[in-house]
Write a structure and sequence with these properties.
The protein is of the alpha/beta class. It has 2 domains: 211 residues, Rossmann fold (3-Layer(aba) Sandwich); 181 residues, 3-Layer(aba) Sandwich (Rossmann fold). It is 40% helix and 16% strand. It has an 8-stranded mixed beta sheet, sandwiched between helices. Strands 11-10-9-12-13-14 form a 6-stranded parallel beta sheet, sandwiched between helices. Helix 8 links the parallel strand 9 and strand 10. Helix 8 packs across helix 13. The protein is globular. It binds uridine-5'-diphosphate (UDP). Uridine-5'-diphosphate binds next to helix 1 and helix 11. Uridine-5'-diphosphate (UDP) binds next to helix 1 and helix 11.
């Protein structure tokens, strides 16, 4: 990097606001990723602006996180929450407001890192208008997601077209696991340039407390066998599989405890899923040993992970799955679905166990194997911690991204189009 302009970078995350509370409907891994990558890049000396859509009048337009890192909320459509599947039509306005922001501040971003397909469309227009380079992280691939759900949304055709176009045209795609790269190649396109740079976690925060201290702090019986879920309430997260697996556990009559952590809003999709799960828990007679503590802040989460004997990630599909590495960083083994990024983070028999998604019997057996053998459980937990230290710290992730940005910025700039502002082209 040899000039100040080149040190400036825009992270675009239209629907995943990096400055909001995590753990509620639609606020999950992407929000954490953008915020943590942004803050870690700022520590490395980059000037980072993270652009997202404003969803309420009460929200501040600019949130300063650290001297070189801020979130900027742009208007696009009515200032209210809109589910991501309905956002595409608002993107031209988002793009216009992004261009206005640049103009008012007297600079152009030489490189934008876009997140999720919606933002990728914005990045592709910027590439045309001002020759910004584009790095893109998918977070979720339509081609994979639509194989795991029954009702395909109307936006599917557009999404698939945009996802193919960005893979073929971005300067670089960041896959967060070899499994994600493989899906891009087999399901989206063989063209385009992909690097694998994983997601990360805060290895100082997760892993800072030991099990007994964590249990004392949370008021959990030191002798309990504690099974933990952390995440959004979404049918694709497979919480039902976990609940039914625990119901079948051979250790059920002992001191078994199940904690299902994550926020929900009554009347919203996550509230509906939470009610459904609570009903299953009640039907299976598990209410006396199952708790729903609600949304867990990033400050309290290290205690929950450390207190648990095993953390379960039963998703039907997971492009990466931050929860798995947060638990592993906290010395806690993970039982996860044998899918996507979880096949990359969890090493079976070494840092936890994998089970086929939605396979209640397999999950139950895996959970029991770990709970029944405390010494092995501890060995798995130690190896899990080591794996995260070696591969998945945010600092490591940010420095890999920084190297990628620097390399792309040094490559000869492509011809800048004569006009400075073209009308955005809608994807067909
Ligand atoms: N999370 C949280 N509080 C909660 C539930 C979840 O802070 O109550 C965080 C969790 O720590 C993780 C993220 O939300 O960092 C979930 O990311 P993941 O990749 O596991 O799933 P996604 O939500 O992206 O599908």
């Amino acid at each position: 990097m040899n000039s100040r302009t080149e040190q400036r970078i825009a992270l675009i995350s239209v629907h995943g606001d990096p400055a909001v509370e995590i753990g509620k409907e639609e606020a999950g891994g992407q929000n954490v990723y953008v915020r943590q990558v942004g803050e870690a890049l700022a520590k490395l000396g980059w000037q980072v602006e993270m652009f997202t859509r404003k969803v309420s009048a009460e929200q501040e337009t600019i949130v300063q996180h650290s001297p070189n890192c801020r979130t900027i909320r742009l208007e696009a459509g009515a200032v209210e929450f809109v589910p991501r599947d309905n956002l595409f039509g608002y993107l031209p306005e988002f793009l216009d407001n992004f261009l206005k922001f640049q103009q008012e501040n007297g600079f152009v971003y030489p490189l934008v890192h876009t997140n999720y397909w919606l933002s990728s469309w914005v990045g592709m227009q910027l590439k045309e208008i001002q020759a910004s380079k584009q790095v893109h992280t998918y977070h979720s691939l339509g081609a994979v997601k639509y194989n795991t759900i029954n009702t395909i949304p109307l936006i599917a055709t557009t999404r698939l077209a945009v996802e193919k176009q960005v893979l073929e045209t971005a300067q670089r795609i960041v896959a967060t696991s070899p499994q994600e790269e493989e899906h891009m190649r087999s399901l989206v396109s063989t063209k385009g340039s992909i690097d694998i740079i994983p997601c990360g976690t805060d290895i100082g925060q997760f892993g800072c407390v030991d099990r007994q201290a964590a249990r004392a702090e949370l008021g959990i019986d030191p002798e309990a066998k504690l099974v933990l879920y952390v995440g959004r309430f979404d049918p694709r997260k497979g919480i039902e599989t976990l609940v039914r697996a625990v119901a079948e556990s051979k250790l059920r009559s002992g001191k078994l405890q199940l904690i299902i952590g994550g926020g929900s809003r009554p009347g919203h999709s996550d509230g509906i899923e939470r009610d459904r799960i609570e009903n299953i828990v009640a039907e299976l007679g598990m209410s006396d040993f199952t708790t729903f503590p609600g949304r867990l802040s990033q400050e309290i989460l290290p205690y929950y992970y450390a207190a648990a004997d095993v953390c379960v990630v039963p998703s039907h599909y997971e492009p990466f799955g931050l929860v798995a590495i947060e638990a592993m960083a906290s010395h806690t083994p993970v039982v996860a679905s044998d899918v996507g990024g979880l096949q990359f983070t969890v090493v079976p028999e070494e840092t936890g166990l994998l089970a086929p998604p939605q396979d209640v019997a397999a999950f139950s057996a895996a959970i029991d194997r770990i709970l029944a053998n405390p010494q092995w459980r501890n060995e798995l937990g130690q190896a899990a911690r080591k794996r995260v230290e070696n591969k998945f710290s945010w600092e490591g992730v940010a420095s890999e991204l920084a190297q990628l940005y620097t390399q792309l910025l040094q490559e000869k700039a492509e011809e800048i189009p004569e006009e400075t502002h073209k009308e955005p082209v809608l994807a067909s």
